[in-house]
Amino acid sequence: MPTVEELYRNYGILADATEQVGQHKDAYQVILDGVKGGTKEKRLAAQFIPKFFKHFPELADSAINAQLDLCEDEDVSTSFFSIVMSLIYLNSTTHWIAGDVPLKGLLPSAKNLMFFIPLYV
Predict the structure, then answer these.
(1) pLDDT tens-digit profile of 70-99?
(2) Residue 104: closest CA among 116, 90, 92
(3) pLDDT tens-place string over residues 5-43
(4) What stretch of H or E contains 38?
(5) Per-residue pLDDT, 34
(6) Contacts of 99-106 spanning 24+ positions with Cβ under 8 A
(7) 34, 75 in Cβ contact below 8 A?
(8) What whole-number distance in Å separates Cα of residue 24 and Cα of residue 76?
(9) CB neighbours (10 Å) of residue 77?
(10) What distance in Å separates the CA atoms of residue 116 and residue 59, rounded to the nearest whole number?
(11) For 70, phi and psi rounded to 5 degrees?
């Protein structure tokens, strides 16, 4: 399980890579593994997974499963944060909603949660 520092370091690798992000599959895999960590690691993973999702089509299934695991987390704040982050990035890529991606099933519940966003901001 990666630590907060490892997640930030791998985020930096991906963020600095600009056009060659897809060449850093190992850095993205570390971020995907962040879903197995504690609350802080999970929240970072929830933020970073959708941000770089479109650059790693070969890891799409793993990324979607990881994000769904976060959306179903026992900790309500982690679950809520993961749903919100997923919805924010839904607009930036069609990969999240193509085909029968299970994330579509979260939209009705996430729509209800959106009314509470001002309480958490």
Answers:
(1) 988 888 888 888 888 887 776 555 554 444
(2) 90
(3) 999 999 999 999 988 888 999 999 999 999 999 999 999
(4) none
(5) 96
(6) 101/64, 102/64, 102/68, 103/64, 103/67, 103/68, 103/71, 106/68, 106/71
(7) no
(8) 32
(9) 12
(10) 32
(11) -70, -40
